[in-house]
Amino acid sequence: GENVEQHPSTLSVQEGDSAVIKCTYSDSASNYFPWYKQELGKGPQLIIDIRSNVGEKKDQRIAVTLNKTAKHFSLHITETQPEDSAVYFCAASIGQAGTALIFGKGTTLSVSS
Amino acid sequence: GAVVSQHPSWVICKSGTSVKIECRSLDFQATTMFWYRQFPKQSLMLMATSNEGSKATYEQGVEKDKFLINHASLTLSTLTVTSAHPEDSSFYICSANVARDVSKNIQYFGAGTRLSVL
Question: pLDDT confidence of B103, banded at 50, 70, 90?
Answer without folding.
Answer: low
